[in-house]
Structure formats: C-alpha cells, structure tokens
Amino acid sequence: MQLVHDTLVQSRFSNTFPRTVEMICPHCFKEAVFEARTWQEHGQQLAASELACSRCEETVLFVQLVQADGTRKDDGLFCHPRPAGREAMAGVEHLQALSSPLARSYESALKLYNRAEWGATALTVRHLLGGLASRMVAEDKRELPLTRKLEALPQDVDLARPLQDIAQLLAPAGTFGRQFDDEANIDKVTAELLVELAEQLITYLVVLPGTMTDLKSRIATAPVPLRRGSGAA
Known about the structure:
Elements: E1 2-3, E2 9-12, E3 18-24, E4 31-35, E5 40-42, E6 46-53, E7 59-66, E8 72-80, H1 92-98, H2 100-114, H3 118-136, H4 146-156, H5 161-170, H6 188-221
Antiparallel strand pairs: 1-8, 2-3, 3-4, 4-6, 5-6, 6-7, 7-8
C-alpha cells in the first residue's frame, strides 16, 4: 500500500472521507480523477473503496484509516497499486524554507514530468538548478553561466559544516557526548535523535556519493538524441 498525500484529495464526503482524488493513474499513467461512490468500513479502524480512473476506468483500491469518532485520520489514505509518476523528494520542506520560488520551480518540474512533457521538464530543471546556484553563490558570481556557478559553489558554501556540527554534538561536552557517560539515562527521544543523526551522516557520506556515481554512469551510457538539423541520415 502506498500513502496518498491529503493534498491529492479534491473533495470529501460529509464524514470527511475522500470523494474525489486526483493523481497519476497506475494503469494508464495519465493524470486522472478517481471518484468514490461508497466506502465500506471494516471494524473501527479503516474503510475501503475501489475508485475508478476517469480516463481508463480501471479501479484502484483505496484504504482510509479512521479515528475513534468515525472521521478520517490525517495522512491516513493509502492505495494499491501505487500512483504512477514521481513524488516530491524527502526533505522538500527545506527547499521551501530556503526559497518559495525555487520550491515552486521544483513542483512545476514534477508536474511536467508526470504529464510526460519531457522537454519542458528539462528546461524547468535547468531553471531550477540555475536559481539554486544563484541563491547559494556570492553576489558577484550570480551572473556567471550555470557551469561556472556550480564550479564556484565549494568556494562560497561551507560543505564541511554538517560534519563540524555533528562533531560538536558528539564531543565529550556536547549535547549527546555528555549522555554517553551514563547510558542508563538515555531515553527513547535521545536514542531516536541519535539514530536520525546517524542516518543523516550515512546519507551525506555514503548514499549521496554512491547515488551520484550511479547517476554519472547512467548519464554516460544514456543514448543521446540527435539534434534537429544535424544532417544525420
């Protein structure tokens, strides 16, 4: 089962259950509206309904988690099969906090991708990268070409800062370092935060370089489309 974000629900019944959901159909791979006629409650914890795609008329099973008072739980809607298309990246709220226009560009790129508008997607991504680089580099470099701005990023952005922050947290006098002296007093919240810190560090040091290597390999082996007017037979 795949979580369906509440933002995809276009209308609701009086009991707060979804009436219509707009998403990329897992059957025809097009943006479509799914309409519910009835919901069947199972026990006191969930309700289910099969919603039909307005384009291909294939059905998708939706499950809604229910609260004790019979209304829906927030972020409690799931479906099977999962919606097609790309979803927003984890942590996109940080991009929103950095720059609302950049966040809107990212959202536009996703929407264009999910509508199979490949050229427009690529141009929007290039605009996003240019805006992000301009936002991060020093003011005197903001008019440089995109490649030059990206090359200048390590000079203007302290990429080592996350590691320095973690080192301070784990130092003997740091927030977490002090607690290692008496592990019996470490509670669930502290343990959870430490696990999250470790995951962030693994992402930064291991996952990101690994995925970048994989991506570079895929880019290097991807077929390059011929330019119009190239004269190739």
